[in-house]
Specification:
Elements: H1 2-7, H2 27-31, E1 45-49, H3 82-87, H4 101-110, E2 114-118, H5 125-131, H6 133-142, H7 144-168, E3 173-177, H8 190-210, E4 214-218, H9 227-233, E5 237-239, H10 248-255, E6 260-265, H11 270-273, H12 276-290, E7 297-301, H13 311-333
Parallel strand pairs: 1-2, 2-3, 3-4, 4-5, 5-6, 6-7
Length: 334
């Protein structure tokens, strides 16, 4: 399986495509059935999704407003509510979401495809959605003990879901996200990350390593200051290395021996604004930068490919990812 070979540095024959056909907002409406033309390109993983924290099913004693924007939405508006919140978190062993996933997992394994299991939002994005951005940032400094309590409860919850998935779904890898960076640096200072967030990354990483799962982490923005901590915590694959926020060449040089990169092509400018030749040039740049003799690279869209993206640019991206991905690997496995 080429994905396993790439992640584990076992000399893949080509560079796998993972979340490369990622259709974002409005693209389906723009192109409709034409998007099926891209099915001729590989998609080397299948992901089974769960929601480990269904707020609507928790029967909290207070009303949760659902109409506010993500940045300001608040489930826990007072730390006095934390005890009840933790008490009513769902039991991973009793979650009916798995009932419909077991048969799907069996079919995917029968096709010899790489199976990912996971969910969006971990120890930054999830608390952000629970507390609201402003409350979370303030709490890092004035309520660190309560932040630890929340993170610890979330960690137990996440590990419970991972252990059940291992037993019932037998995935190859775990996918999750935490947008730790903004355009120039981390969303929090490195010391806060190391004190309040990293310990729980380490616990998740320990469980994943014990059960032989690869850890795929998506984190937008400039994550350069955290990459060393993420590798220490057990992250195996990092996505997307966002263009114009991180220096691809220096990141690949410093961390390429420790991290596999799911390099994401820029969907904001490259796919939107360049012509097809420019898109192909960018694909070759990413492959030349991140692919190593033994592997260590997959390729993806950096985010969902949105409406307004020229059809021929999407085709150029996928075609060059396959064509040059094979050509580049031949240099190392001939």
């Amino acid at each position: 399986m080429e994905v396993i070979k790439a992640v584990e540095r076992k000399f893949p024959a080509r560079i796998p495509l993972v979340r490369a056909r990622w259709w974002g907002e409005g693209l389906g409406e723009q192109y409709g059935e034409r998007l099926r033309e891209f099915n001729r390109y590989p998609e080397d993983t299948v992901t089974l999704w769960v929601n480990p924290l269904n707020i609507g099913a928790m029967n909290l004693s207070w009303r949760v407003a659902s109409s506010r924007a993500h940045d300001s939405r608040c489930v826990i508006d007072d730390w006095s509510k934390l005890d009840e919140f933790i008490e009513k978190m769902p039991d991973p062993e009793k979650d009916p979401q798995f009932d419909s996933l077991i048969e799907q997992a069996e079919k995917i394994r029968a096709q010899d495809r790489y199976l990912l299991f996971g969910w969006w939002n971990l120890f930054f994005e999830k608390p952000w959605s629970l507390l609201g951005m402003e409350n979370l940032m303030v709490s890092y400094y004035i309520e660190p003990e309560n932040v630890h309590r929340l993170h610890s409860a979330l960690c137990d919850q996440y590990c419970g879901y991972i252990k059940r998935a291992v037993r019932e779904l037998q995935p190859d890898g775990f996918w999750t996200s935490d947008d730790l960076g903004h355009q120039t640096q981390l969303m929090m200072c490195p010391e806060i990350f190391q004190e309040l967030i990293k310990p729980y990354y380490v616990k998740v990483g320990t469980v994943l390593k014990k059960h032989g799962l690869h850890w795929w982490l998506r984190s937008c923005g400039n994550n350069t200051e955290a990459l060393g901590d993420l590798t220490e915590a057990g992250v195996d694959v990092f996505h997307p290395v966002q263009k114009h926020t991180m220096d691809e060449i220096s990141v690949a040089s410093e961390f390429g021996d420790r991290l596999t990169f799911l390099a994401g092509i820029d969907v904001q400018h490259v796919l939107q604004e360049k012509d097809a030749d420019g898109v192909r040039e960018e694909v070759r740049f990413l492959i030349d930068t991140f692919d190593r003799p033994d592997g260590g690279m997959c390729i993806a869209a950096g985010n969902g490919i949105v409406a307004g993206t020229p059809f021929e640019n999407i085709d150029a991206f996928l075609d060059e990812a396959v064509r040059y991905g094979i050509e580049h690997r031949k240099r190392f496995i001939a």
